[in-house]
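The protein record quoted in full:

***
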Amino acid sequence: MLEIRKVEGKKHVNQFVKLPWKIYKGDPNWVPPLISDVKKLLDRNHHPFHKHAEVEYFLAYRGKEVVGRIAALVNFRHNEYWNEKTGFFGFFESVNDREVSRALFEKAEEYLRDKGMDRMRGPMNFSTNETCGLLIKGFDSPPVVEYTYNPKYYIDLFEDYGLKLVRTLYAYRLTKEQPIPEKLKRVAEARLKKIKVRKARMKDFREEINRFKLIYNEAWGKNWGFVPLTDEEIEFIAKELKPILDPDIVFFAEINGEPAGASLSLPDFNQILKYANGRLFPLGLIKLLIHKKEIYRLRTYAMGVREKFRLRGIEALLIYKTIEEGIKKGYREADMGWILDNNYQMNKILIDMGSERYKEFGIYDKEF
């Protein structure tokens, strides 16, 4: 008999967090997340997202066996920003069984209907400011840092419930062997005469966070699904990312001393996270330090240009500097993503560079 239960108490939280180890057993491309990080994200008293949202977690049981999970959430800042009544779901995992997935989606929909929402969108863990999207193309390689991953059969489970694809997020791959196009070099070199591009100053980390927040919230402000970060959220993200930052691949573009754009790239720690198998202690941290030299890929996690500084080639300049410095640092591959399917300018820049669109992630809707 199938039963959907609300997550209550430590035992349920542990079952919710550890279910992926069952779903992905034997999958060579799955990268186990750090259990402590997932728990911090889900904790209503810890992650600042919960201060402007209501979230409920559910588990699917068949007898005593956990066979699925889902989160249903109302993001009040999103609905205020976009004047919508959109509810969200995230953290979806399920065995390959439509009875299970339907029951999970039904429970999430019931919760969101009761909250006055008129549609359900996802997957969002919790928003576009965290991980989001269902992997729909690119199952032949592991996810890079801060990407989602899922079995291919999830596409069928989503469609079976009537969820419709509304947006696609693209990820592009560049390798060291691909020459930087001459046009990009010329544009970058010409722009460098008027635009200052510098690396992040870790000694000035507090002010760098404020500069990045200004650029990020303004640059992404009109992007589909975007919700501006609060001060607490950006502080949380900065604290989480600081230990893995490589300041040599984080850039700020300035015009007359004013922040104009920024690019934040991260070493792809997913390449070695598998060695920890979800735990830093007692041996996981040692394993990560031992294998750190195996990281050869970077991911451009966020890039943006403030509206009044656009159409000056700053995006191309930031990409150029990331590639140039990344190669110097020994990175052999770069992931540029994700990019919204309707961000035609950025998609064109990356295609013109000869990069490969190697992964796609879907955002799905179901109207009530």
About this structure: The mean pLDDT is 94. Residues 98-114 form the longest helix (17 residues). The first strand starts at residue 2 and ends at 6.
